[in-house]
Specification:
Blueprint (H helix, E strand, L loop, with lengths): L12 H8 L3 E2 L4 E3 L5 E4 L8 E2 L7 H8 L7 H9 L8
Length: about 90
């Protein structure tokens, strides 16, 4: 996730974790950039918490680590949501 106006600015897990005071993010938490600017607010969470340090899973990594075929991962689920109009960008 990057700032379109400033492509060198990007999501930064350590800033996000520090501001949230937890590694498990859910509704109301804000994601921060590498220069500590808010870039996204979680406005709805139907799962109830997301580990920010567990790494990004993907179809290839799920296959490599767990032997599952065609199982959508975090990356495949997250990227389409960024384009949705109901996502609240801070």
């Amino acid at each position: 996730m990057r700032n379109a106006a400033e492509p060198e600015e990007r999501y930064h897990a350590p800033s996000t974790i520090k501001a949230a005071g937890t590694t498990s993010l859910t509704t109301g938490h804000v994601l921060y950039s590498d220069i500590a600017r808010p870039i996204l607010t979680i406005v709805e969470d139907q799962l109830g918490g997301h580990d920010t340090i567990g790494g990004c899973c993907s179809v290839p990594s799920n296959h490599m680590l767990y032997g599952v075929e065609d199982c959508p991962g975090c990356r495949e689920n997250f990227l389409p949501c960024l384009g949705r109009r109901d996502i609240c960008l801070t």
